[in-house]
Structures are given as structure tokens and as C-alpha cells.
Write a structure and sequence with these properties.
Structural class of chain B: mainly alpha
Chains: A alpha/beta (263), B mainly alpha (130), C alpha/beta (647)
Number of strands of chain A: 8
Shape of chain B: globular
Helix content of chain B: 40-55%
Distance between the termini of chain A: 28 Å
Number of helices of chain A: 12
Oligomer: heterotrimer
Chain lengths: 263, 130, 647
Amino acid sequence: MKKVAYYPGCTIKETDIAVEESTKAFLKVLGYELEEIENWTCCGTVFGMTDDDLYHQLAPIRNLIRCQKISNEMLTLCDMCYNTFRRADLFMKDPESMEKINLFMDEEEDYRGVEVYHILDFLRDVVGYKKIGDKVVEKLDLKAMPYYGCMLLRPKEVAIDEQENPRVMQDILSLLGVESVDLGLTDECCGSYHVLEDPSIVRRKSQEITKNAKENSADCLVLTCPLCRYNLAKFGDFPVYYLEDLIAHSFGVIKLEMGGGET
Amino acid sequence: MANGDINPRSELALKVEELSGQNLFACYQCGECSSGCPMSQEMDLLPNQVIRYLQLGFEEVLGSKTPWVCSSCLTCMVRCPKDVDVAKIMEALRVIKLRDGQNHVDLKAIRVEDDTPPLAFISALRKYVG
Amino acid sequence: MKVGVFICHCGKNIASSIDIEKLKKGISQNPRVNYVEDYMFLCSEPGQDLVLDRIKAEKLDSVVIANCSPTLHERTFRDVASRAGINPYMVEIANIREQCSWPHQNQIEECTRKAADIINYTVEKVARDEPLSPITTRVIKKALVVGGGIAGIQCALDIADAGYEVYLVERDQSIGGRMMQLSETFPTLDCPQCIETPKMSDVSLHPNIHLYNYSEVESIDGFVGDFKVKIKRKAKYIDYDKCNGCGACEEKCPVKVPSEFYEGLGSRKAVYRMFPQAVPNKPVIDTKNCLYFRTGRCKLCEKACDLNAINFEDEDRYEDINVGAIVMATGYELKKELDELGYGRLKDVVSSLQFELLLSSIGPTDGEVKRPSDGKIPKSVAFIQCAGSRDPARGVSYCSKVCCMYTAKLAMLYRDEVKDGGAYVFYIDIRSAGKGYEEFVQRAMEENEVLYIRGKVSKVYQEGDKLVVMGADTLTGKTVKMAVDMVVLANAIVPRSGATDLAKKARIQTDKYGWFTEAHLKLRPLETNTKGIFIAGMCQFPKDITDTVSQASGAASKVLDIFSHDELYQEPLIAGVDDDLCTGCGYCENVCAYNAIEIDPKKRARVNEVLCTGCGACAATCPSGAIQLRNFTRRQMISMIEAAEGL
């Protein structure tokens, strides 16, 4: 069993623990075991974008340093955590920033660099499509719109695939027998955190995205981001599945109830 | 404020350029950012207009809804043909107000549902509270 | 040696930073200098007359002109020297403007001293100059034109009409190029096939034009007046002496592949002519797709041919030609990577050339605009300008120049054909600078009801059987999201694939995009930095047909200029070998970028005087000093340095 340092993030642990279970289950089939990082804290999303803001970087860097203790590779399931960690890691490539932050967080060891994986590029680059295909026992007869959202593809420096023409989700879905419907709004923002103070925004965007999926003859949306899942499932009136759940189901290690809204 | 009091070197514009590291005059007002912005329907000024206000020094842009409606999806900056990071400019405008002590939400007034994902709570607070 | 020094004021350019009187006094004290004079503008006619006069009067045999950069007036004053009866290579320029007065303004004392140094060391140089004679080369009065589009065709016709032989080499089966793919030309709405086919016909009938279709340039050696070019005559598998263009083979061929001429919207056979009016009107066989070449079976074309013109045993042939001048006219392509606009993934998002073909009477749909996806007539079409152009973020910073005009045209033609159809143009700016151009665009807006929306489109996506365009109107400040039946892109115009390879073969420069570089953008736009090789048409940069044809004729006139001489003169400021010192080590041969040096069997370096450009790499490399540049020897350089150091 190969061990993989794992960062769960707040939402997976709080409201979406099921997807962590599915992931653990199918990764076990593929020969990987998740090793949760000790003392992890909030990843610090959303990434702070002003040039002078070092404070905002402390949260993600702290977690990356904690990961360093057990591995120089880290896996996360949440799109927003992935995005924040990758950008924080890039931010630290500037020697001046690296020095300032290391000095400031003197109670932690120095940050050296961690390779951050999202479950999607982990499956593509570390596990490999062939291994995944080999473990499929039940092919799913579905037409799905792979929904990438914002955080996996933007900015270009952290994108897990070609920005305007990503294929990783479609490739994995095809291993599961799922036909992808991907010529529509696959990377349109769902409204994100506006659900907190103005859910009508999220309602409008979710309806727009799911309408597009329906018009393009998709049966459902497939995604990996917990915030998008919440928004689209609650306000979109359309089946939404975690990709991890579909993989686990097609490996035969969980039983998904398809046809509903939330999983 | 009279129409046409143009000031391309306004204090606000210089501050925004400093915080965002962007050259406001690299923007040639093509509108691609506005075309692709998923939150544009909710905005009073389109993203390209926000930049135009800054280029011409109309400081009332600070009172616009637009930077707060922005969801940091980064579609604008990945599409901009002049490589202007519009998202950073929006962030600069937000940060100018936040650092001035003007929170965008009243913490006490936020309602959290049972099923609200912590993600929403955390990211919103990071954006709206100084 | 009698050296004269002439100092130019250049108005205020030199005189404001240099104390001319003091300078003159200083120079007069140089024992090598026989005569010093200053003048306001030496390059003017009276200035030149003054120099000529003094050369004669003072019996000077060498001259130093202290003025601006030699790139400007070295030739002028060499010419003056010739007219005064002395050897023109006994003239040296001391640049006291760009290299002295201009960079050191407000430092008069130091500046004057520096000017004196510059002049003094130049005097040392000229004192050791040798009189030289220009090198002459022969002129072969035949031309090569690469590319059979309208530029190549026009150029070839102009040269041929003047009485000289032209080889017109075209990579594809037929000449005609992009113009044959267009529906109508702006702003006159001419039928491009109707105006171009007569010229194509002229080319094929012209006794002076050798039309080499389905051929490519393999290598180019030699120099202006005497180029040796190897042409690859690709195997056609059709005997053109027997074939009469009846088309029976094409009809019987069972293989259908996407047609390049139709930009993928229609098909052709494996044995094919590009379009019905092809010149030559004889097909070629595409061996990649031909059943016989792939599987050994079929040969239906051979059976169908009454004249026995199919020859499966044909082979590529190489032909060497000798020409005096070459014109590159290789044209353009459209940028294909436009993923956010759905190009290549969404069937009903088409390029401008594809839409031209849909409207064209010789196109794949006989001129009926139909959606590639389902063949239905689109009732709403969005035209997206600047699709890839003006986009430094994605590697194409420039404006493609013709798209505003052709978009207006395509929208007008669409509206003409689909009377209840809606045409919407998304633009950033409108560039319509040409005769009748602005009026044409206004006509589209005023009379043809084409709606112009000012905002660059961010994305096009699919929803059901419609395409959704995400745009904006920056003038009203509103986003515009429009569901349409079809989208036409004004793709960025980029150089033809293979252009940079061809440039390397010809040793001409390309810019960072691959456009062929002109010798001077303003004053020598048709010449390249390689003498005798010219450029015309889109291969230099996007332009419309008017400018293309103008450039083609202009390039032809440059060629005819060369052909009007029986001999060409080369500057003699090149490398020369001292046989006594040369050991034949070969270092110089290795380092020469122009293949101008050979070590002969006697182990002595031999310089090809016509290929040598006088770059000096060999002179710098030679360990024994055997090979040196004429009139820029080591001895001269050392004396110049010593003079500058005041030794």
C-alpha cells in the first residue's frame, strides 16, 4: 500500500465526509492509502491577490509545512484548497517572500516546497489511466457534463490541464463508461461564496449552468468541488455527483443512488 | 464633480496600480473581461468600465458594487489579450476599503444554514472582512 | 599621402555639443593631416561640391568626413571622391554625431576632445587604406518566383512581359492561392475567380513562364545575379504530356478525403484537381490516401483514362535552375488555436475562409450558406472580429489588417442571401483605411442592417443546437449573451507553414512571428537583407489584394532593375588572404557563416569574393593573421587604438 499525505479541508470533514469515504475506498483498490496530515488547519482560501499581502499566505503555507513533515507530496480533494495551496507554493518561489514568511513563522520549520495534487491530476499522473480502467467492474450508463468550475483551471500557472480544452475529467469518466457532454458551460463560475450573503446570485448561475447541461442532453453534472456541489445541487434542480463517488461505485466499493439530487 | 474632470494620475489609480502590480493603461478597453464575467449581470459597472473609471480618475468607482460582486473566478485575467490581471485590480479596490476599516458584510447579520458548507463561510469572510 | 579632413556642423546636431573651431585647430596639428575645413551641412549639394573642389584644389588623395553615421552618407562621399577623380575607398567616415555629439550633450569640452580622438584615429585608418576596385559579377537574366497566389502570378507576369524567363514554383496542384477561395472581394464585390482566372490563364500560356506546379524549393545557393536553386518536382503520377484534363479519373476514384481547398468543409478524391478552374487543369495523385499506394489495389483511374496518362511508376525529380533574382510570395494561413471560441470543437464555428467558401459559387455548397453540423440555413450569424489578433497574451500582438473589411463584406453577403437572417458583428475597433473602405463598412451598417456591437467576445459554447456567444457592448455598458445558429471568426492571419524553413534555405530573415523581414520597413519594403531576394504580398505581413498586387509589381521592377545590368558590382571591403602567412589550418573556413571560404588543395584559404560579406569573423579567428579584411587590417586597428590613446 503506497501512502499519500492527505489534506482534507473544512468542508469535506464537516458536511461532505461521504466523498472522503468513497475516495479512501477506491484508492485502496488502486493500492493507495490516505495519511491525514497532523494538525492541519484551514487552508486559507481564497488566495490573497494583492502584492503586499503576506499575511494571507500564512494559512496555506503553514499547512504545507506540516505536510512536509511526512511527505513532499500532498493530495487534496477540494478544488479551492488545491488552488490556494498551489498558488501559495508558487508565491513562495520568490526568494524574498520565502525568506520573510519563513522568518515570520519561526515556530515552524522552513518551507522547502511541496508538490500539491488534486485528486484529478493525481489519478492522471500518479496512478495512471490504465490502472483505473483495469479496476472498473461496473460501467455506468450515463451522459454527464464534466463541471470543472473555476479553481482547477485558473490561473494558468496552477491549471491541472489545458485551460480552454481540459480533458482529464472526460478521460476518467470514459474509463467508467460515462459519455461526456462537454461543449457547454463546463467552467462557468457557480457563484461561489455569494451563497452566504446573496444566494439569489448563486440561484441564477446554478440555473444557467444546469439549463445548459439539460439542453446539451446531459443526465447529470459531475464535479469535485464541495462548494460548487452545494450550490449546484441546492439551487440547480438537477442531479449532481462527485466524480469520486462515480469511481467508487464503478469499482464496486460503494453503492450510489443515482437519479436523485444530492449524494 | 463635473463631467470631464480627467485625472489619469489620480491617487486612487496610483494606489490600485501599486497594490495590484498592474499597468492600468495596458487595458485597451476591448471588453473581453466583461464579456466573460459570470457575475456581470449583478454589477453596476462592468469590469472594463471599472478600469476606465480608474484610467480617467473618476474616484466614485470606489463606491461601485462591482468589486464586491466579483467572485474571483479569474475568467477575466485568463482571457485578457493584454495580460492585464483584472482580478487583482478588483482585489485592490476591495482591499483599499477593507484596510480603511469598511467591512463589506456585518458579521452579526450573516445567517448560516445547517448545511452551509464551511467553505462558503470562510471564503466569504476572507473577502468581505478586513 | 595627402589627407583632407572635412568637419560637418550638421546644423545644431553636431555644432551644439562640439566646439568646431577648437576641433579644427586640434586636427590641424595632426602631422598626418594636410587640410581641414568645416561646413554647415556637408551632405548638401554645396557641401558635396565643396569637398569635391578641395580634393582637386589641394590634390588630396584620401579624405576623412567627420559627420553622421556611415550608414547614411558613406556612399554619398565615396561618390564625391569618384567624381573628384580619386579612389572611392580612400574615404572614411568619422562618426562624431551618433557616437559623440548626440550622446554627450552639455559636455562640450569632453565632447570636443572625444571628437578629436575619433577623427585622429580615423585619419590613422585612412592613411593605411588601399585603393580598391568593386568586384563584378555576372547577371543571369532569369527569375524565380516562389508561390503561385495572386502576388506570385502578378510578379511572374510582369517579369515575363518584360521579356525575361520566369520559373513560377507552386507547392500545391494549382496556382491561384487564397483569392480563389474567396466569395467576393471588398469593396467592389468583384468575383475573385472571374478576375483572377484570366491571369492564371495568361501564366499558363505565357512563353516566358515555366509553371512548376506541385513543386517545392529544395535548396538555394549562390548570390544575386547567379543563384543556383534546386527544385523538387513532386511526383504527380500523371503524364502531363498525355493528360487532357477530361476528369474521368477523378470521377471514378473511390476515395474521398477532406479537401484542403474547401478548408475541410467538402471533399476531394485521391486523384484530384483543387477546383474546376485549376491551372494546370491536370490532376495529381495524393499517395497518402490513394488506395493503390496504400493497399496495392484499385487503379480505377488508370482503367478510366483513355489516353494512358496515369503513371504509377512516377518519381520525385530534382531540377537545378540558375536564376539572377528570386521573389518570395508564399502567402498566409489562419490561426487555428482558438479554443475558447470553440474553433475546431463546435462544428458551426467556422473560420472566415470557411465562410467565404460557403458563400462562394465554386464552394462545397454551391454558394448556399448552410450549417456544417446539420445543413440547415442559419437564421442568425455572429461575426467575431479580432479572433486571435491584437492579443499579445496569446502570441499575436499585431492587427491582421483585413478582417474588419472582410467581416463587413461577409455579413453583407450573408444578409443578401438570407433575407430574414440576423448578422451581428462583435468588434473592438473598425479599421477601414482604403479607397471606398469606410463607405463600404457604413453601408453594411446603414443599408444591410448588420448590427455592430462593440465588445470582444470572451467565449462561445454550445446549448442544444445553438451556439451561445458571450459578448458585451462596452458603449452601453451591458453584457450581451446571444444564442445564434452560426459563428464566423476573423481568425488571426499567420505565416504559411514552411515559411521559416524556406527563409532559412534562402538565408533571409524572419521576424518573431515568421513574417519575412524587409530590408527597411519604410524605404525598402520589398527587399530583404539578402541581395537579389525580394518579397511580395502577405508573406511580408497581412495586407489586402490591392497592396499585394502593388508589391508584386514593385518586386518585379526590382528584379528588372537587376536584369537591366549586364554586370553587378560588389563592395570590395571583404576578406583577403596573405598566402605567405596562411597555413591552411581551416579555422576561417569553419567560422564563415556565408560558406565563402574554402581551403584549396595547396592548403591555402581561398575567399569567394562574391559570397563574402566582410563580416570579419575569419579575420578575428585566424591565428596567424593571414586572412584580414581589406581596409580594416590589424595594423590599421592597432594604429587607430594607439591614436585614440594618444600614443
